[in-house]
């Protein structure tokens, strides 16, 4: 008859709980970061759409300009040649529409790389948390016997 493994020590259970809580905190932080990246990507996409829409109208025409949260304002286009683009730290510079689109596309791509890495890290953390949960279930069964 096979002997069941020895019951875990109280110290081992505490250690596993501590590790699980650390993983949980790290996963929550990553989810918050991913949310910030997603908001930034969506902002780039909206800006790109606005620049593309601007290119299709003539100077002096009315157009709807997105202001966020699926909201728009009516505006009259005075010039479609220049776009003011934020470059960080509250600084904006004037660029041609083509340069603005290129800049926004690059920024969007730059946001996607770390976002993918964070998703991979989150998956690994979730796998480790699953392993700990499995071990905890085994411990529970041993205590129930």
Could you provide a short overview of the structure?
With 145 residues, this protein is an alpha+beta fold. It has helices spanning 10-55, 97-144; strands spanning 62-68, 71-76, 82-88, 91-96. The chain has a single domain, classed as Helix Hairpins (Orthogonal Bundle), CATH 1.10.287.
Per-chain topology:
Layout: H1 10-55, E1 62-68, E2 71-76, E3 82-88, E4 91-96, H2 97-144
Antiparallel strand pairs: 1-2, 3-4
Commentary on this structure:
With 145 residues, this protein is an alpha+beta fold. It has one domain (11-140): Helix Hairpins (Orthogonal Bundle), CATH 1.10.287.370. The chain has two helices and four strands. The strands form two sheets. It has a two-stranded antiparallel ribbon. Strands 3-4 form a two-stranded antiparallel ribbon. The longest helix has 48 residues, at 97-144. The protein is rod-shaped. The two termini are 16 Å apart.
Number of helices: 2
How confident is the prediction overall: mean pLDDT? 87
- Give the CATH topology: Helix Hairpins
Q: Helical percent range?
A: 55-70%
Q: What's the arrangement of strands in the largest beta sheet?
A: 1-2
Query: What global shape is seen?
Result: rod-shaped
CATH architecture, please?
Answer: Orthogonal Bundle
Rg value: 26 Å
Element-by-element helix/strand order? HEEEEH
CATH level 1 name: Mainly Alpha
Strand content: 15-25%
Please identify the structural class as seen in this structure: alpha+beta
